[in-house]
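Translate sequence into structure tokens.
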Amino acid sequence: MGRTDRPLSGSVWARGCGLALVAATLVAAPSAVFAQQAVVQPATARVAATYADAIAQSREVVAERMDETAIPGLSVAVWADGELRWAEGFGFADLEQRVPVDVDTKFRIASISKALAAAGLGVLVQEGRLDLDAAVQTYVPSFPEKEWPLTTRQIASHTGGIRHYDGNEFASATKYADVVDGLAIFRDSPLEFEPGTEYSYSTYGWNLVSAAIQGAAGLPFLHFMRDRVLEPLDLDETIAEFTDSIIPGRARFYQDDGGRIINAPYVDNSNKWAGGGYLSTARDMARYGASYLTHEILDPATVELLWTPVVPSDEDSQYGLGWRRAAVDDIDTAWHTGGAMGGTTVLIVQPERGLAVAILTNVQGAGQTGTAHAIADLFAGAM
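Result follows.
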């Protein structure tokens, strides 16, 4: 049976108290997948040994960062030199039941969902089915015209003036049947500025992009993403998070409440599949990042289109279409981070090094971009 866009059928932890022990224990006892996948078909014993050193040092980095930021659970994966070189889980997916994170644990990928949806946008653009510079109403006729014309390119690059969350909207618990239905949250809000004149990050903008993708594709957004992105790339562990569904391996989600870990509030992310509604594993996300290097569904020109900053003079944005791109410590890097209710994530791709690193966690506010770059440096030294 082929995959569907939907799966089958719906504490307190003190900072520093036990998390270092958890990380250290799991570092000392790596998961089975490490033995199978940490070094894949090495050309020589020297290469195998070198990657083993990079993995061992990366484990130390992860354990240190988990202790510093009181992260309950974390998963990391590295794609290097054409293969998945490392995938491993640390800490707990569920603190109350003491369920450890493993490579199959699914986390909220948060705003990495934008980078994922960007592939769907890229497919339609390279097939000539979506014009980035046409009015968005070409593909979403129900979206009201604003005081200025508005294009998909502007919306996808956060230069369209669509507002971000307001009030407690980040904690929405409302279920929406379709991406167009979810536009009701902001469809009547005025634009915050004339499109193309400023940069202002907006998750709701990517909700509108998903509706444009749906309109151009002539398929429900989730079906199109399944058929044209997830299945072609074998991203079998990446799925929209339906709150009423049984999803094997889904982590529990937490918040840091002034130094102690508590359960995150219930949310329903059906209003923002493309903005922040997918679940995945670090292994799948590293695989997805690597697809931009192997050009399996996106040709080089389309990758460059998505990665090139639309407002390159704005140092705060560095944002293309669903991706940020800049030189980080003189290394050309494309990336996206994410913050969800109960999750912090990062995916980086370094084309010159042939590297992709994904880190997913089940707690808010645990930025791991520096961790990802540290791990990338370790693996780059082993290549």
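Note: Residues 7-47 have pLDDT under 50 and may be disordered.
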